[in-house]
Amino acid sequence: MNSPQPGRYGGAPTNATMSSYPNQQQQPGGGYHGGGPSYNQQQQLMSPHPEEYQENENSMTIDEMRILHRTALAEAEAKRTELRLVLASRYRELVGSSDEVIHMRERAEELNDLVVALPELVEKVAKSAEAIEDASSAAAVSGDDSRKLFSDESQTGAENEDGKNSPQDRDDFTTASGSNSLAAVRGEISRLPRDIHRCLDENNVHGAAAALIALFDIIASRSKYFPLATALSSGKNNIGIPTKNNNATPNNPPLLETQMKMVYLHVQTLPTRTVKLSRRALLQSAAKPGVGAHATAAALSALDLLDIDRRRQKKLLSSSSPVPSSSAAVSTSSSSTESSRATKLIDLYYDSKAQLLNKLLNRLTLPASVSAADATSVTNAAEVILSKIVLILQYDVILHPYQIFVLRKFPVNDNGGSGDDSHGGEGGVINEIMSTLPHFDADLLKSKASRFLAAHLPLIRTKVKSVLMIIAGTTASKLGQIRQTLYDKTDGVECMTALDNTGVCTWDEAVSGMVDIRVVSHGTTFATALDSNKGSIGENRGGGGGGMNGQSNTAGATATAATRRFSLWGALFSNTFSSLVHSLLTSSFHSVHVRVVSTLRTSLARAPPFESMLPHEAHRNALRIATDLDASLRRVSDDAHELLVHAEEREESERRLRQSLYVQTCEIMGRLLNELRRMLTDGKRGSLVRAKSDEEKEDATKVLIVGRLCHLLKFRLKSLPTLLDPKSSPAVLAAGLGGGKSSGMITLMELSSSFDLADDDDDGLISFDEAMEAMESAFSGTHFHGAQMVRDTLLLSDSSAAGVGEASSGVSNHASRSFASNTHKSAPQSVTLSELALLSARGLRHDASGPESALGTVQSSLDDIVHRCFREWARAALSPPLTSFATTLQEQIGVASRVSDMEWKRLNGLIDKEDDALLKEISQSKGDASKLKQSQAIVGEVSPHVVSYLLAVAGVLNRSVCPADSLPPVPSLEYAEALGISSSNNKEMPNMMVTIRGSLLGEALTSMSQSLRQEMTSSSDEEDDDDDHNILKKCSPSSLVQLVMDVKFINRCFFDRNQHGFLLASDSVDDSRAIMDSLTERLSISVSNALRDGSPVNSAISERH
Questions:
Q1: Residue 987: its pLDDT value, please?
Q2: Both ends of the chain: CA-CA distance in Å?
Q3: Which residues contact 379 (CB under 8 A, 6 or more apart)?
Q4: Burial class (CB in 10 A: 0-12, 13-18, 19+), 452
Q5: Are 724 and 665 spatial neighbours (Cβ–Cβ below 8 Å)?
Q6: pLDDT value for 143
Q7: What's the CA gap between 655 and 643, in Å, rounded?
């Protein structure tokens, strides 16, 4: 590697310099020539900022150039030093890598030598094994000769002086039979570890444990210096040579001692490993492929065989009573030991299954909120875990324990083979395993399994419900899929077939032998198909139905337990899904209500001022809220119907669901109507405090938006006819189930009677406390708690979420209930009869159709709110022009009562030349003072303030409507009738244009009539006369004619030429018309008295009009 040569100024070119000029070539003598940079370019390259020095190169001094040169040299030297360090480090790394390569080569050669020598070592081992086998065979053949040889030697050896070679002191191996020879013992000690490892590799823990016990029996029979072998040995000596007493051990040759020691050191950890594998097998589901009852029984057998404490206790028992007094004592001791073994194994087994269930339940914990993207993966994981829990309860808790502990036979493989002895190998495997296990008490096993189920079923049910609630918050279709899967795995046909086809016993036999219904059903009701048909979702809430029968059902669970069939679906999921559907509907409808109200309040808060509000924006916002509400109701209904997935309970589930949807829809509409009316009440209450202020405009904005929304809700809630189907009402469904017409429910007339008693001022409103008392009075004598029902439906009760549990208890405490619920922050101040009729839908019998049906009640309530909203909005919208009208009218009446007729004409422009007309009239009236009074009045135009007010009404109408308001609200009358809207005389439904125009016309008529009556019938303060017409007597004839013309013009506009009518033919319109007719009559009389003949005046007024 060549280092870069120094440049023409002695410095090495930097990397930046070299890369900046790829075409330049470095000369051998140093420096750059030819295509290299010039002097100025080199100055730029050496400088950190070449462009700066390029600009100032002509102004540099000698000192500055020297400093620049020294800087360049220093940088070049630094680059050379850095390059040297880099090269040195790379060289050291290269040398180190070379050493490692050499070391790896040496290790590779050593490994190669070992691999090459391995065949030779294997051959030596094979020859040694053959030699041992040959010696064993030779010893077996020449056994008699050996004994003779040893006998001769004993005779000759007796003559020895020291006696050390006597036959009693010789090796006992030489006197053993062929099967117990030294070679056989060594062969077994050599074979058994291989069998143990083979069994462990195959997860055959029973085979490994049996081989360990056989190995430890041989070692313990040959030596007492191996404590683990002594502790785990069974005491049998099938291979070892029998000794003279139990404490003596044979003399082992050194080779055998070494072999036993090596084998013992090798296998001393295998019992612990086998026990761990056995416990691990128990901590797995037996329904898992490859496990099954065979693996469970093998694991139990291995744990029992390798139980050191049990063997130590057995040996202590045998040593403490070496000579039993009688056979009965031996039998009692043996039975107690076997019973303790059986109890310990059962406890160990169910403790393992409890750990397995707790592990799965902990894995079943889901996050509090699941996003839509993770919903599929989360629900799939939950479905898998729930399926595993069901399989554990079926196989590990009920079926396999019954086969192993009671029947003592089980299928050896997963194909459902029989465990009968006639099957040869399978029967032998079963007998081999079961022979090592004690006998189990069937009653003790049944009690243990029942208590296990009673302890874990409520935990599983609670956990499942919480998880399903989270899943249901994301997608109800997935919840329906989980329900179908769980039903198929519990009570499905294929599941029952698989449980019955085990080849050993049926599922019903296992349930009857393992489950005590009285213990398991403590606090839980297992419903059969008949029992489930008697329940109702709508009756399980708060103070609703179900509370009446809850206590009797709980008490009767024990009495009828023996006749009931245990079902995992009924124990875990049936009631869970039923209450889950109810909880889902409650939370879903509540969220819909909250979302609608919050959206409406946000729209009201962001609404522009009253004068700046655009009608199309108000229509768009109200339409969006109404459409979203209808879509939300339909979505809740669709999601709920997706839970009806299996045909076995479809009819009953659909009946419950339709009833719950009916009740919940009534309740949400009652809450929504109450909330909308409260908005208007709050606005009215605020306007009373802030009268004549700018806040009234905000109230006008509020009532306009709320009115538009309620008008759209009447026609846009297409889902209401389905949700409020009369056939889905609780009364109809209860009657269909044989509950009769009464069934503990009341009629709307009974509720109305209690309401009327509480309504003291007859305004159609009662306070919340009065409503609680009225509800309690109306529902007295029934199993419904009226006050608690309203609290729950208005979501004011703290126990509303636990309504099902409260209802199931069946205990009512009227004395502890307080009606002072105003302390609740969200409690309404007042309620109406229609709202109570909707809020108490659980216990109220609505009519099938008409205004007293649920749908008719909703529509009538919406009508009332619409009329009220637009009436108040019209009053607020027409308030400024009405003030101007009233002021001008008051001034007009005042002037007319104070000036002469001539002055009135002059002020109103009814004469052309004032002076000539005045002189002419004076001259004509000389000598006759009454001629001036009886002169002919002149009919002018309608008063400007009247026209101005009517134009203001038209202007408000134009500003408050948009093209969409002129569209028909419904496509047909049939559509309106389906929505519960009654049309009178087959007329078209009034659209928003008609509604707004009618409300403005009604308010204009009422306000103008009231103002005219107030001004024309008021007495003057100076007069004491009680005559109401004295103010008109003071007016001049022309002013009276003007008033007549104005009043008749108003009558003609509102009654003769009004082709659209008013918003509602109410008493206020009739009163206004009566006032206008009365004023017209009075003014006509006054004009007739003031003039000689009033008929020309009437004709002139008609022509003017």
A1: 63
A2: 117
A3: 471, 474, 475, 478, 479, 481, 482
A4: buried
A5: yes
A6: 46
A7: 13
Lowest mean pLDDT among 338-347, 650-659, 752-761: 650-659
Residue 783 scores a pLDDT above 90:
no
- Residue 767, strand partner residues: 830
Burial of residue 965 (CB within 10 Å: 0-12, 13-18, 19+) is buried
Token pair of 537 as six digits: 């979702």
Identify the residue whose tokens are 């490993």: 273
Question: Taking 80 as the threshold, does the pLDDT of residue 693 lie above it?
Answer: no
Give Cα 578 to chain centroid, integer Å: 15
Note the pLDDT of residue 978.
84
Residue 66's pLDDT is 92
Any idea which residue has 């020895």 for tokens? 160
* 295: its two tokens: 């693996």
Dihedral angle of Cα 21, 25, 28, 31, to the nearest 10 degrees: -40
Of residues 389, 579, 382, the one with CA closest to residue 481 = 382
DSSP label at residue 763: S
Q: Which two tokens stand for residue 234?
A: 């069974």
DSSP 231-297: HH--S--SSSPP-SSTT--PPPPHHHHHHHHHHHHHHTTHHHHHHHHHHHHHTS-TTSTTTHHHHHH
Tokens of 650: 């479809």
Residues with Cβ < 8 Å from 541, sequence gap 6 or more?
582, 586, 792, 803, 804, 807, 842
Least confident residue range of 318-322, 372-376, 625-629, 689-693 = 689-693
Spatial separation of the C-alpha atoms in residues 252 and 171, rounded to whole Å:
8
Give the DSSP letter of residue 1054. I
* Tokens, residue 426: 């399978």
Tell me how far apart the alpha carbons of residues 40 and 31 are, in angstroms, rounded to a whole number: 15
Q: String of b and e for 566-604 (b: at least 16 CB within 10 Å)?
A: bbbbbbbbbbbbbbbbbbbbbebbbebbeebbeebeebb
Nearest to 873, CA basis, from 999, 1011, 963: 999
Closest by CA position to 303, among listed 404, 205, 197: 205
Share above pLDDT 70 across residues of the chain, in percent, rounded to a whole number: 68
CB neighbour list of residue 147: distance below 8 Å, 6 or more residues apart: 175
Distance CA 885, CA 93 (A): 105
Q: What are phi and psi of 288, to 5 degrees?
A: -70, 140
Mean predicted confidence (pLDDT) in 398-423: 70
Given a contact cutoff of 8 angstroms between Cβ atoms, the answer to whether 998 and 990 are in contact is yes
112 pLDDT above the threshold of 80: yes
Longest dimension (CA), the chain: 200
Rounded CA separation 1092/936 (Å): 8
pLDDT higher at 692 or 331:
331
Handedness of CA 874, 880, 884, 886 (dihedral sign): positive
> What global pTM score does this model have?
0.60
DSSP state of 110: H
What's 579-647 look like in SS3?
HHHHHHHHHHHHHHHHHHHHHHHHHHHCCCCCCCCCHHHHHHHHHHHHHHHHHHHHHHHHHHHCCCCCH
Give per-residue pLDDT as tens, 1071-1081.
888 888 888 88
Contact 232, 302 (CB under 8 A): no
